[in-house]
Every structure is written in structure tokens, then in C-alpha cells.
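Appendix C: a fully annotated inverse folding record. The material below is reproduced so that readers can follow the format used throughout the book. The structure is listed first as C-alpha cells, followed by the designed sequence.
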């Protein structure tokens, strides 16, 4: 046993251990009381009975180490050093809270202590922690990420995906499972075929052990061993701490799934009574000292409550703060044309954009399925592995949620990951990580943490890939606050949007239409970054505005040419960005032409076209000479036969017919 692994049970140290547990217990007792008074609302999950784990592990971490907790994280936050008053104010939802009142009980964040929050999605914090640790591994910081979660998380796919990736990529993470025996109200034996949880981590090759989570000395000893191993090897370690929560799953829980005798039996073996009894019996602490400790804690809690009670509520005018970064980079200046052009394809333009990003910024790396030697499903990244190596071109397992979450964590730690999802349909496997973490962490943390991440994916139909590889779901993602959603259609945008997206402080999703990859054209040799906030006017016209994006741009331009042959002058707007929408360009054009047709490869019901039509109606209804027309995909899963597939998605003749109809020529 090395010096770093030894425990010195001096009087001062045992006093610290006992005080840490008592502080958690008393704070939470007060929170339960305040909940009954309706001062604290929402879900309140208490740590009562599990105090030895946070108190035994977290003090061993250094200030540079990171902590990812679960929704039962008040103890973790207090032990990590977040001011109790700020924690209590957050429980109230006050602006002075550690998350600015945005997170509440389940989402305590604190950048100053590298506390990356509680996560209310069971298992959702595991990939985030893995990604934070990956960033530290890639940067050689020597820091460790400690991730706390309950035994219910081991049934989630994200647990298994994280264990596999953590061991595969050898990330310095300490995974601490707080096994309290019940996932909400379901006993472990009723929900898991194999109840030996540490064995599940061991099956992925992660060193793991079981420890009595009610014994703070045993927990600290195990944590010392684990952290020493991580710091020596740089690889993950897993601790299963077997514990018990004395209170219900949450304050809403009637707790009908276990009898009082069981709870009382565990209470007699609780970590505080057990440790305190041992200390007093061995003369390591006296009743008077304990009374003094408790009095000090009571006074601290009283100050925290007073702080929360008197703190201000965030003003209503700040409602929209911290959805995206307030300090945004200036839009890039347009690249000065060189006058020289080269023939290239959309695929090659995107590859060149990735190559350029990897060359310019050492924080950039790419990961996804088959992105290495295979070059991804559409060969966009072919050749980059040989050029930049496996550390920056990372082939992943088929675990979209896992590696997307790793990308989110790495971005939160300051890296600039590019995550490639093979197709938009597969992105739904990562939707939890995209929506519940990437899109929300800035808001829930009160602006303390951001996710400067780019996620690329192929979208659209036309290649006879049938229903599970062909849909256009970008409109779904455009519904989610906190994301930026781009749909580059031209070679210049394929080349330049990635550059600008990687400078953005928030998560950016780039949808690349599968039919575009082979599209060839000439591009200026000096092509560079482009503005991702503004729509582009691709063709001027006077009679009708055709509004589109991505895969339908070229069909819309073809339709405009056909209309010109009939004497109808059509203006074509390429949205390029679906979130945010460039309302100014849309309204300016439609206000002039007084007619609009929106072309959208998504389904008509609940589509981005419906949103744009509604905005036109709200803002310039009295300027219109005809109802807004829409050309969308038919309300069917994308069929396999070519003739049915073509009929299911917008085509130039349908766009022409819709434009004629707005002019009364249908």
C-alpha cells in the first residue's frame, strides 16, 4: 500500500469525516422540513443514509478534478465545497443559487469547484463524465473525473456504452455506483438478472470492487486505492458502494414497496450512528465535541436558510437568458475571392473543411462509426486517419448515445469535438444526450457550462435506403431551444459552415443531404468561413418567394427556372439555418412578392414549414395576396421502390404547381 492509499485516523481526521456526514444529514433534514412548508418544490431526492459515500470519496479529489453527480446530489455538492447558502438558494429557485435558480434540487452546478451538476436522467451523466475524462486524457492534465450514480442506471444502455468506451479509450474516470437497493420503488433483485453490479463493470475490463457503503472508513480506503490506480495508469476504476436510503425515493413517494421494519433495521446500521458509536467507544471523540459540531452545523444551516429566504427571484425579463451563449463571436467576414476556382464535390468540400479544422485547432477531433479507414458511411472522412492519427480520428462502437455523450463531455471540458452520426434516423438513439444534456446544460447551470460541439449527420431520401435510413428529421431538432441547426446545400456552405460552427460556443447540428455528396461544381480556392445566422438569396424574383433548404434547394431552383419559362418570376431563399430562422430575410422577400411557397422534405404535420408559415401569417399577413403554400413529404415512412420514394418527397413539378396555385394559375 502506497502512502497515498493509507488512511490516518487522527482525531482531526475522524472529526472531519463525522462532521461531513452530519452536515449532509442535517442539511437534508432541513430541506425535508422546508419541502413540507412548500418553500422547496418539484422533486426532492434525499441522500439520507448514503452520506458515507460522498464524504469518503470527494475530499480525496483535487481542485482540478471534476465531479458528475446524479439527481440525489446535495451531499456531493456540499462536500465538494459549494457554499451551503448558494445550494439552499438553488433549492428555493432563487437567482443567488449555485445554478442561478435554473436547475433546482436535481441540477446543482458550480464551475468554480468543477462540479458538473446533478443529472435527472438516470444514467445520463455517465457519458458526460466519460467525455470529461477523455478531454483530460487527450490534454494530459492528470485530472480525474468522479461520476456518481445509482444502481438503477446499470440497466440503461448508457451505462454499458460508457463502460465500454471508458475502458477502450482508457479515460481517467472513477465510477461510483451508490447501490441503495431500490431503483425508485423496484428492488434490485426484481429488476436485474445479475445483481452483482461491480461484475458488470468488470466484464468490460474495468478494475472494480465492492465496498460497504455504510462504512466511511472502508469507503475512503477503497477510494484511495481507486484514485491511486487511476493516477498511475490513466485508466478507469469502478466502485460499487452498497448502501441504503432511509427516506423515500423522493418526497412524492408513498414508499409502499418496503416495510418499516426493513428501513429501521438499516437505520441501526447507518453510516453516522455506526461511525459515531465506534468513535465514542474508542475515545476518539466525546459527546461535547459532537454537540459542538452539531451546533456549528445548525448555525450554518440557519444562515443558509436566511440567505435563501432573503435572496431575490430572477426577474421575468431574464427568462430567455442562458439558452444560448450571451457572448457570441462576431459573424465571420466573407472570404475574399481569389479569382481561381477548382472542380470539387460536396463530399470533398466537407472533407476539406474537417481537415482544415483539425489543422487549425488542436482542440478539434472527430469521432463516429467507421470514420477511420472506411471514411464513414459516405466516405467523407476517408484519408484523415492516416493524416491525423487515431487519437484525433476516433472510430467508435455502435453506441450513438455513448459516443455522443462523450463528445458533449469533451466539449464541456474545452475541446471542440466533431461527432458524426451515420444517418439522422440513428441520431434518435442519441436524442437523450442531445436534448437533455447538450441543449440544456447551459440553461440549467445558469450559464456556467457550455457545449461547443458539432454533430454531423446525413439526412434525406432518394437513395432507396427505405424507412430507417432516409427520413428528414432536422425540423424535429429545430424545435429544441439551446441547439443551432444547419442545413448546408452548396459547396461553399459545406466548406464554410463547419468552420463557423466550430467557433460557436453552443451545440451545432449539421444536416448533410445524402444526395448532395456527389454533387460537383467549381469552388473558389479561397473559400472560407460563412455566416451561419443568415439565409441566402439564391435567385431574385418578383412574383412569388420559394423558401427551402438542404436537399430541396436544387429542385427548387429547377422549379424556378421552369416558372421563368412561363413568365413567373420566382425568388428562391435558401434558409441554411433552421434554428435560428432568419425571419428578416424571409419577411423582406415575402413582403415584396406577396406570395410564398415553402418546400420542406420533412413531413407536413408539425414541420418546419408549418412554423415558417405561421410566422409569415403572424408578421405580414396583410401583405399577402394568397395563402402560404407548402410542398412537403407525404405522410408515409419513406418507401423502398424508386417510384414510390420519388412520389413521397418534394419534386420540382410539385413545387411548380404550388407556385402557380398562389398566382391563381393552378
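Designed amino acids, in order:
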Amino acid at each position: 500500500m502506497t502512502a497515498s492509499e493509507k488512511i490516518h485516523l487522527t482525531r482531526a481526521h475522524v472529526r472531519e469525516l463525522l462532521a461531513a456526514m452530519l452536515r449532509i444529514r442535517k442539511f437534508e433534514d432541513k430541506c425535508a422540513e422546508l419541502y413540507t412548508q412548500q418553500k422547496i418544490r418539484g422533486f426532492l431526492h434525499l441522500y439520507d443514509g448514503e452520506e458515507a459515500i460522498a464524504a469518503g470519496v470527494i475530499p480525496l479529489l483535487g481542485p482540478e478534478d471534476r465531479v458528475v453527480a446524479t439527481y440525489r446530489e446535495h451531499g456531493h455538492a456540499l462536500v465538494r465545497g459549494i457554499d451551503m447558502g448558494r445550494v439552499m438558494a438553488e433549492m428555493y429557485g432563487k437567482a443567488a443559487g449555485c445554478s442561478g435558480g435554473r436547475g433546482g434540487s436535481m441540477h446543482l452546478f458550480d464551475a468554480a469547484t468543477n462540479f458538473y451538476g446533478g443529472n435527472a436522467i438516470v444514467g445520463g451523466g455517465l457519458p458526460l463524465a466519460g467525455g470529461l475524462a477523455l478531454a483530460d486524457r487527450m490534454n494530459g492534465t492528470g485530472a480525474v473525473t468522479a461520476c456518481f450514480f445509482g444502481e438503477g442506471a446499470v440497466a440503461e444502455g448508457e451505462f454499458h456504452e460508457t463502460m465500454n468506451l471508458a475502458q477502450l479509450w482508457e479515460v481517467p474516470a472513477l465510477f461510483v455506483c451508490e447501490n441503495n437497493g431500490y431503483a425508485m420503488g423496484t428492488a434490485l433483485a426484481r429488476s436485474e438478472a445479475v445483481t452483482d453490479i461491480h461484475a458488470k463493470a468488470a466484464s468490460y475490463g474495468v478494475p472494480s470492487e465492492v465496498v460497504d457503503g455504510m462504512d466511511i472508513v472502508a469507503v475512503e480506503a477503497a477510494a484511495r486505492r481507486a484514485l491511486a490506480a487511476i493516477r498511475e495508469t490513466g485508466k478507469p476504476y469502478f466502485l460499487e458502494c452498497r448502501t441504503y436510503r432511509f427516506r423515500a425515493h423522493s418526497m412524492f413517494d408513498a414508499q409502499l414497496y418496503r416495510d418499516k421494519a426493513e428501513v429501521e433495521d438499516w437505520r441501526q446500521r447507518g453510516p453516522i450512528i455506526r461511525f459515531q458509536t465506534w468513535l465514542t467507544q474508542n475515545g476518539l471523540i466525546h459527546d461535547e465535541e459532537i454537540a459542538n459540531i452539531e451546533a456549528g452545523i445548525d448555525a450554518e444551516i440557519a444562515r443558509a436558510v436566511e440567505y435563501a429566504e432573503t435572496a431575490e427571484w430572477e426577474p421575468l425579463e431574464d427568462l430567455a437568458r442562458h439558452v444560448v451563449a450571451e457572448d457570441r463571436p462576431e459573424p465571420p467576414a466573407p472570404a475574399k475571392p481569389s479569382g481561381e476556382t477548382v472542380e470539387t464535390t460536396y463530399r470533398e468540400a466537407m472533407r476539406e473543411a474537417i481537415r482544415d479544422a483539425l489543422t487549425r485547432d488542436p482542440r478539434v477531433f472527430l469521432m463516429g462509426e467507421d470514420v477511420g479507414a472506411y471514411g464513414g458511411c459516405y466516405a467523407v472522412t476517408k484519408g484523415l486517419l492516416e493524416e491525423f492519427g487515431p487519437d484525433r480520428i476516433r472510430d467508435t462502437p455502435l453506441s450513438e448515445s455513448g459516443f455522443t455523450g462523450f463528445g458533449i463531455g469533451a466539449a464541456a471540458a474545452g475541446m471542440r469535438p466533431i461527432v458524426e452520426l451515420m444517418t439522422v434516423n440513428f441520431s434518435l438513439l442519441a436524442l437523450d444526450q442531445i436534448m437533455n444534456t447538450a441543449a440544456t446544460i447551459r440553461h440549467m447551470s445558469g450559464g456556467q457550462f457550455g457545449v461547443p460541439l458539432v454533430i454531423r449527420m446525413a439526412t434525406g431520401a432518394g437513395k432507396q435506403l427505405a424507412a430507417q435510413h432516409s427520413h428528414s428529421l432536422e425540423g424535429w431538432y429545430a424545435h429544441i431551444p439551446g441547439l443551432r441547426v444547419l442545413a448546408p446545400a452548396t459547396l461553399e456552405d459545406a466548406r464554410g459552415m463547419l468552420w463557423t460552427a466550430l467557433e460557436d460556443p453552443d451545440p451545432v447540428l449539421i444536416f448533410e443531404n445524402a444526395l448532395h455528396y456527389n454533387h460537383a461544381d467549381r469552388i473558389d480556392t479561397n473559400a472560407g468561413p460563412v455566416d451561419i445566422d443568415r439565409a441566402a438569396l439564391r435567385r431574385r424574383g418578383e412574383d412569388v418567394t420559394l423558401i427551402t433548404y438542404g436537399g430541396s434547394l436544387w429542385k427548387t431552383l429547377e422549379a424556378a427556372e421552369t416558372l421563368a419559362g412561363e413568365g413567373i418570376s420566382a425568388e428562391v431563399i435558401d434558409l441554411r439555418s433552421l434554428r435560428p430562422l432568419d425571419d428578416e430575410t424571409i419577411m423582406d422577400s415575402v413582403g415584396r412578392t406577396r406570395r410564398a411557397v415553402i418546400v420542406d422534405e420533412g413531413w407536413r404535420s408539425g414541420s418546419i414549414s408549418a412554423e415558417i408559415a405561421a410566422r409569415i401569417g403572424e408578421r405580414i399577413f396583410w401583405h399577402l395576396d394568397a395563402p402560404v403554400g407548402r410542398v412537403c413529404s407525404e405522410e408515409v415512412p419513406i418507401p423502398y421502390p424508386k417510384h414510390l420514394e420519388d412520389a413521397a418527397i418534394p419534386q420540382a413539378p410539385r413545387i411548380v404547381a404550388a407556385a402557380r396555385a398562389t398566382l391563381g394559375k393552378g
